[in-house]
Amino acid sequence: MSNSSSPSQSNRVAIITGAAQGLGRAIALRLASDGFDVALNDIPAKSTALEELVTEIKAGAGTNSDRRAIFVPGSVADEEDVKELVDRTVRELGGLDVMVSNAGVALNGLIANTSVEDWDALYAVNVRGTFLCYKHAANAMIKQGRGGRIVGACSIAGKKGFPDSSAYSSSKFAVRGLTQSAAQEYGKYGITVNAYAPGSIVTELLGKFDAYNVKKQGLEPGQWTETLKNRAALRKLLTPTDIANLVSFMVSKDASFITGELSTSSTAKV
């Protein structure tokens, strides 16, 4: 499943979770372009998409024929799956320098209409999953003794609560606190911990938010998304590539003194 070559210590290694589509896919492509060997993770149902992304990354390596990419399916909500993701990455790619804990899910709905089951399922991915990725990536980095970069997926909803998004917004507030605490704990090991906190991004997830609000407000499909664009300072929405560019900087040597930060890439007016 991995088709990896023998490890080369000259290349830095990055894990990206939620890599099958959207932000995760864009981040994986960017970091591979930056010269990282990459380990891609998503749920087992998305294994085909992960395999196709591995093929695309290897095909795009060009003259850099030693560029390596593997995929390791599993749920970030399951500790054994996360541990296996980190262990396989270290074993097959020769180490771990960057963890991008990108996997996340969203849920629209009023508090009164949110079930305990839906709440717990969202928290299992967004909060427990982020915690497990931070924990096991840091353990591996500390063991290696060469520092590292950990990056989490927060949101503008982790800085300000929004109606109809109590579960999602509160989970991102949790990621915010976890990131700032982890930065304090792991700084002495040369590990930085930051998160990106974007506004509206053109992804499948935004389409689901649009569908919810269209139905609730009696709008035409796409009309709610258009209102977001009209309120944006630059009159346009973010793309996955915009966030991938930000992550590329966060894990670069130029960001070595930045830690505990939530970098907001927002199109909204302040």
Automatic annotation (TrEMBL):
Q: Which UniProt keywords apply?
A: NADP
Citing just one GO molecular function, the answer is: quinone binding
Against Pfam families, the record matches this protein to: adh_short
Q: From the record, what ranges are coiled-coil?
A: none
GO biological-process terms attached to the record: fatty acid biosynthetic process
SUPFAM superfamilies hit by this protein = NAD(P)-binding Rossmann-fold domains
Family, according to the entry, reads as follows: Belongs to the short-chain dehydrogenases/reductases (SDR) family.
Q: What is this protein called?
A: Acetoin reductase family protein
